[in-house]
Design a protein that fits this description.
alpha/beta, Rossmann fold, 8-stranded mixed sheet, 13 helices, 6-phosphogluconate dehydrogenase, 6-PGluconate_DH-like_C_sf, KPA_reductase, 6PGD_dom2
Length: 400
C-alpha cells in the first residue's frame, strides 16, 4: 500500500514537497486555504529549474483540518503514515532569559493550535505501513518542535531544515530556483546538550555528544523511511543525528538577511547595491570624496550583515556547538549571497511584508535572542532587529 501523507500548509514549500512525495508513489492529501479553489480545479503546478515543470493533483484537498478530521471519522480504516507541517512557524511559547517558557502574544495560528487540531489524525499505534503516524516539520527557526513533542510524546517528530528558494506566483503555481536541499533529523536526539534549541542551554564547548544516538531507535527507522521517499521523488535528503546543528547553520543567514531585507524592502543584492547608490555624492562633491564614499558604502553594508551572522554563531557556540559552528559558516553564507544572480533572493520575511502577512519573528529572531540571554551572550544587533521586526509585525497586523 502506498504511504499516506497529509500536508498541512500548501504554500510554496508544501506544494513542492507534495509533488516530490507524489512522484515517489505516496498518496498526498493537502490542507489548503487561499489556494483551495485553484487546487481543487486545476491542481498544483511547479516550475523548477531543477525538477522541470509539472502539474499534479493531490489525492484529496481539504479546506481545513476539521474537514480532514471529519472524513477520517467517517472512515475508520484511514491512517496517515506522515503528517507534514509546512506552515509558517509561530511557537506558542518562547524561552525566557532563564530558560523557562513564556507565552508569545498573537499566536492564534500557533504551533500548539495546529498540534491540537491534528490530534484526531495522529495514530499512536502502528498503521498499515507498520508504523505510528510521524509528524514531519519543515519550518524555520528554533524551538519549533516543542509544541508538537508536548502534544505527541510517543509519536516520532521528524525535524527538517529546507533550502528551497520558492515563490507562489499565483494560487497553486510555484516557481523554484537555485537549490533544493532537505536536512532531516529526529527530535529530540540524545546528547549532553539538552534539546539543542536553547531549552536546556549550557556551555559544553569541551564535551562531545554521541551523534550516533537517537531519541528512539524506531524513530530513526521511520525517519530513514521518510528520507527514502524524498530521494525516490528525485530530491536530496540528508539525515542528521543532531538536526539542531543544521537549524543553527541556516539561522546564521536567515536571522541576518531576512529581517534586514524586510526592513529595507529589497532583496539581498539590491540591499548591497542600494548602499553604493545612496552613498554616491552629488556632482558638486569633489572627485576624491566621491570615490571614497562609493568605495566604502558597500563594504559597510556587508560588514553589518556579517556582524549579525557572527552574533548568531556566538550564541550557537555558547549553547554547546563550539565544535561544529564557527567563522567558516559565516564565510559560507556571505559567499553564497555574493554568488547569486541579480537581483538576489527574496527572503521569507520580505515576501511576507510585501504580501501583508505575519512574519516568523519569534521563530527566527526571538529564539536566538532568548537563548543568547540564557547563555550570557550579548547580541545588540540581533536585539535591535528583533525589536524592530516585532514593531513592524504588530503594525502590519493593525496593532493587534
Amino acid at each position: 500500500m502506498s504511504p499516506q501523507i497529509l500536508v498541512v500548509g500548501t504554500g510554496s514549500i508544501g506544494i513542492v514537497y507534495s509533488m516530490l512525495l507524489t512522484r515517489a508513489g505516496a498518496e498526498c492529501s493537502c490542507i489548503c486555504r487561499s489556494n483551495y479553489t485553484a487546487a481543487t480545479t486545476a491542481g498544483f503546478t511547479v516550475h523548477s529549474t531543477i525538477f522541470g515543470t509539472e502539474t499534479f493533483r493531490p489525492k484529496a484537498v481539504y479546506a481545513s483540518i476539521e474537514e480532514a478530521v471529519a472524513e477520517k471519522n467517517g472512515n475508520s480504516g484511514m491512517c496517515y503514515d506522515f503528517i507534514l507541517v509546512a506552515t509558517k512557524a509561530f511557537p506558542s511559547s518562547s524561552l525566557t532569559g532563564d530558560g523557562s517558557s513564556a507565552e508569545v502574544a498573537g499566536s492564534s495560528s500557533s504551533s500548539s493550535s495546529i498540534a491540537a487540531s491534528i490530534t484526531p489524525l495522529v495514530t499512536a499505534t502502528t498503521t498499515l505501513q507498520g508504523q505510528r503516524t510521524a509528524i514531519v516539520l519543515i519550518q524555520n527557526g528554533l524551538g519549533i518542535e516543542r509544541d508538537y513533542r508536548a502534544r505527541f510524546p510517543h509519536s516520532p517528530i521528524i525535524s527538517c531544515v529546507a533550502y528551497l528558494p520558492t515563490t507562489q506566483t499565483a494560487p497553486g503555481i510555484v516557481h523554484h530556483t537555485e537549490v533544493e536541499r532537505l536536512q532531516i533529523g529526529v527530535y529530540p536526539r540524545i546528547s549532553d546538550r539538552g534539546e539543542g534549541d536553547g531549552s536546556n542551554s549550557k556551555s559544553n564547548s569541551d564535551s562531545k555528544s554521541d551523534h550516533s544516538l537517537f531519541s528512539n531507535p524506531d524513530d530513526a527507522a521511520i525517519t530513514a523511511r521518510f528520507a527514502a521517499l524524498v530521494r525516490t521523488g528525485g530530491a536530496t535528503a540528508e539525515i542528521h543525528a543532531d538536526i539542531q546543528i543544521a537549524r543553527w547553520r541556516k539561522l546564521i543567514g536567515n536571522a541576518a538577511w531576512s529581517p534586514i531585507c524586510a526592513l529595507a524592502r529589497c532583496r539581498d543584492l539590491e540591499f548591497l547595491a542600494a548602499q553604493t547608490a545612496q552613498a554616491t555624492p552629488s556632482t558638486s562633491t569633489s572627485e576624491s570624496a566621491a570615490l571614497t564614499t562609493t568605495a566604502t558604502a558597500q563594504p559597510l553594508a556587508r560588514e553589518v550583515v556579517q556582524r549579525v551572522m557572527e552574533e548568531v554563531v556566538s550564541v550557537a557556540r555558547a549553547a554547546g556547538y563550539a565544535g561544529e559552528i564557527g567563522a567558516a559558516d559565516v564565510e559560507m553564507q556571505m559567499a553564497r549571497s555574493a554568488g547569486r544572480m541579480w537581483p538576489g533572493v527574496e527572503p521569507s520575511m520580505l515576501a511576507d511584508v510585501r504580501a501583508g502577512r505575519r512574519m516568523e519573528v519569534e521563530a527566527v529572531l526571538g529564539g536566538v535572542v532568548r537563548v543568547a540571554r540564557a547563555v550570557g551572550v550579548e547580541v545588540p544587533r540581533l536585539e535591535c532587529l528583533y525589536t524592530l521586526l516585532l514593531g513592524l509585525d504588530w503594525a502590519m497586523r493593525g496593532g493587534e
